[in-house]
Each structure stands twice: as structure tokens, then as C-alpha cells.
Amino acid sequence: MELTVVGVFDDATEAKNAVDKLVSEGFSRDQIDMSAHTAQTDAYEEDYQDSGVVEFFKNLFGDDDNDHRKYSTVGSRGSIVTVHAMTEDRAEEAADILDDCGALNVHDRAEQYGYDNRMADMDADYDKADYDKTDGQNIKIIEENLKVGKQTVETGGVRLRSRVVSKPVEETVRLREERVYVNRNPVNRPATTGELDAFKEGEVVMTEHAERAVVAKEANVVEEVSVGKEVEAHDETIRETVRKTEVDVEQLGSDETVAGRTTPGTPPYPAV
Measured between alpha carbons, how far is 40 from 80 in angstroms, rounded to an integer? Predict the structure, then answer.
């Protein structure tokens, strides 16, 4: 009876070394299969149903879900060497060679990969309502809400700019000016005693004066211009249209259609 021995390795190099060792120990190439995997992603759950690795271990272990899932968890991340032995002795010899070449302890490695947690999550998913176990199609319920805010915009203003301008002015003022004049009147009479006493050298001085215009400027504040703001508040009503998604649930085989709920006797649907 043909016996199958499986070894899972971390990388393809270790798996190839194990194949070379098996050949050197007398195993035929026809008895050895090798599947080298380089993808190191954690996408086991996503590809669980379609994975060739899973199908291989399902066929190998039969209905033992626990074992085939553990081997699938570890095998999907590594490289697999399969040996088809014709006797139990050769099967044990092949197993020893695979162990010596670094074959993984599948049970321990499955725990390191979090196998128990992932399987619990998968089992929990299988326990959900029927609509979660089908094709996974769903409708997103979207509703728009109106949000009104305030924004300050510039609507106008006043700028005050001062400048200095000149203009000609005139003013009339009366000015006085003195002039000294000398009159000579011819006389012929005897000098008086007083005049004789003044009969000596002397001088008489008379000064002329004149007024001149004096100009001065005086600055006076004649007006004040100021700028300020006054604030008025008013209420404004905003009218807009918002949208939302409504889902109509139609029970097949029945004429009744309801929106956002289910009728008695129908399977539960998510609230909308």
C-alpha cells in the first residue's frame, strides 16, 4: 500500500535540499513532489475555499477538519515536499530525512500563526445571519445632513486719505509812511531877546517812520473727519435639498414590499 509522507519547510531552499537528500537515499524522483511557495501574505482566510493547498490537505486527511486546516495554514506560507513510499519502513525513513532537513512541526507553527484565533473568527462568521453567508452584497445607506456655517466676505468699505493743497489768498492792510519836510519863510524884523539867547550853534533832528506789512500764518482746526463701523444682524433662511438612500425590501413570492423593515415570518435583515 502506498503511504504519503509530507514535510513543510519555511523556504524553497530547505525543501530542495530535502529533495536532494531523498534522492541520494534511493528515493525516485517520481516518488517526490515539491511545491514551492514564496508568497508570505496572511491571506489564508480570503483564499480558503479556492486554495490548491487546502484541497490537497483535504484529500489527504479526509473529514478531519482540524488537521487539514492546520496543515493548510502552515503549508500555504511555506514549501511542501511530498514523498510517496511503498512500505512503512521507507515512509519512516522519508520522515526522518525530512525532519533532518528542517521540516516544521506543523502543530507548533500553526499556533504561532494564530491558527486558533483565526479559526474562531471563521466559525463566528459562519454563525452570522443568512445574508452574511451569501455573496456578501450590500447596499450602503447614505444620508446627507445640512450644515450651515458662516463666512466673512468683504462687501465694501471707506478709505480716508488726507492731502495738503495750496490756494492763493489776499488781504488789504492800510500802512502809514512819514516824510520830513523843510519850509523856509523869508522875514525881516529885529531879533528878540530870546532869539538872541539862542543865537549859537545847534541842530534839530526829525526822524521819518513808515509802516510795513508783516505776514504770519496761523493753523486752525476747522473740521474733523472720522470713520467707524456699525454692525447690523439679520436672520436669513437657507433652503437646500438633501438626499438619503432608502431601501425597499421585496419579499420574493409575495406582493408585499416594505421599506426599512421586515414582515413577520421573514429572515432578519440589517436595520436601515
Answer: 14
